[in-house]
Design brief:
Blueprint (H helix, E strand, L loop, with lengths): L6 E5 L5 H12 L2 E7 L3 H13 L4 E5 L8 H16 L4 E6 L14 H22 L3 E10 L12 H21 L5 E7 L10 H4 L1 H9 L9 H11 L11 E4 L6
Parallel strand pairs: 1-2, 1-4, 2-3, 4-5, 5-6, 6-7
């Protein structure tokens, strides 16, 4: 059996961006990682190698958050990985990070765009977590991902932000209903971060980056490690008593 002090986190969408930084920061803190990717298998395996070079164990599993019918087979794949790599039946932390966004005015958002966002961000988080519940240890923890856009508004993000508002409500209900198992559930709400999210506008467009910096108390746009480090801190041993909370990681945007 795996050693009792070995912690295992499952981080969705961790082949790049915030998910990869989160997996890396958790590994640095001594946590083994199961990470998921949708299409980019090469980047996922590069992330696994990076984690293994730190002396942690890791596995990469394919997952399409928009396809809820695949969640049962994905849970089976997680079970197999736990047994084959860690000789155990459950993991400690679930970080629901996977997702993407669109930038379309409210009046021009199509039903297909709305449905995709709903399937990935809201339905996907709901039913993937439901399928994985038997594999999460009592006393474990779940982190869902929202957005600063639920507090402040930028035109073109109505549908995306609406899904993230649903995540924040869902988080409180999950915290209440999973509390008897000792499972803490919180949501993080990143601000504007320099990643390829949304076409990489904050990272690659100097004007957009400067505009973000101008409305941020810390005077700059966020970096992936700002978020990854915060998630690792939230999942550290001193934070067991925090649950049902929305924690914004934005450097003080739009205060």
């Amino acid at each position: 059996m795996t050693k009792s002090n070995t912690r295992i986190a499952l981080v969705t969408g961790a082949s790049r961006g915030l998910g990869r930084s989160t997996a890396q920061k958790l590994a640095e803190a001594g946590t083994d990682i199961i990470l998921t990717y949708k299409n980019n298998e090469a980047d996922a395996h590069a992330a696994v190698q990076q984690i293994e070079e730190q002396g942690r164990r890791a596995a990469a599993l394919q997952l399409d958050m928009a396809d809820s019918k695949s969640f049962t087979s994905f849970a089976d794949a997680v079970k197999r990985a736990l047994v084959e790599i860690w000789q155990c039946q459950q993991f400690d932390y679930l970080v629901n990070n996977a997702g993407g966004g669109i930038h379309v005015p409210f009046a021009e958002t199509t039903e297909e765009q709305f449905d995709l966002l709903a399937n990935v961000h809201l339905k996907g988080t709901f039913f993937l977590t439901q399928k994985l519940l038997p594999l999460i240890k009592d006393g474990g923890r779940i982190v869902n991902t929202s957005s600063g856009l639920t507090r402040f508004t930028f035109p073109g993000h109505a549908a995306y932000a609406a899904m993230k508002g649903g995540i924040e409500v869902l988080t409180r209900y999950m915290a209440k209903e999973l509390g008897p198992r000792g499972i803490a559930v919180n949501t993080i709400a990143p601000g504007a971060i320099e990643t390829d999210f949304g076409g990489g506008a904050v990272r690659d467009n100097p004007q957009a980056n400067a505009q973000v910096a101008s409305v941020t108390a810390m005077g700059r746009a966020g970096l992936p490690d700002d978020v990854g480090g915060a998630v690792a801190a939230l999942l550290s041993s001193g934070n067991n008593w925090i649950t049902g909370q929305r924690i914004e990681i934005s450097g003080g945007m739009m205060l």
